[in-house]
Amino acid sequence: MLVEIRFHGRGGQGAVTAANLLANAAVGEGKYAQAFPYFGAERRGAPVVAFARISDEPIETHSRIENPDIVVVLDPRLFELAAVTEGLKENGLIIANAKEKPPIEGPYEIYCVDATAIALDLGLVVSGWPVVNTVMLGAFSKATGLVGLESVVEAVKARFPGKLGERNAEAIMQAAEKVKPC
Questions:
Q1: Given CB 3.0 to 4.6 Å as the disulfide criterion, which of 24, 26, 159, 175 pairs with 33?
Q2: 46 Cβ contact list (under 8 Å, min separation 6)
Q3: Would you say the pTM of this structure is higher than 0.90?
């Protein structure tokens, strides 16, 4: 099993951190994983892409992911601004920060969660921007089953100790309860 994941977000939303946390959670479960960003001189708000791979065997590939199995979209406006489905495998999975089905067509399975509302409700805001990365990891865990919720929570708490880790853990759990096919 080798699963390739591409995260689409905006600078400051935590797409790169989400990929790293997902890889850490997978490694915590005894799987092999890698995570890496792909961006230039972008700033806060500019589109950013990050990647993760999860496998039950050592991963020999270290290149950018061109044909992901799963795409995670942290900002719903990116469906109109970026080619988020480019290269996504037929019958691939999209996990979207969205209240309703995004404006895309194709043979994809789509899950939605209002990650922005969860982040705002829990005060996960930096410089006025809701940080939805951990919320989306909760949705990812529930929608895919590739990594367990407890493993995601453990990885997040290791990265963000104390009250911040607790709020992020709550965000993960709420997303897992609220994510649904759309």
A1: 26
A2: 10, 11, 39
A3: yes
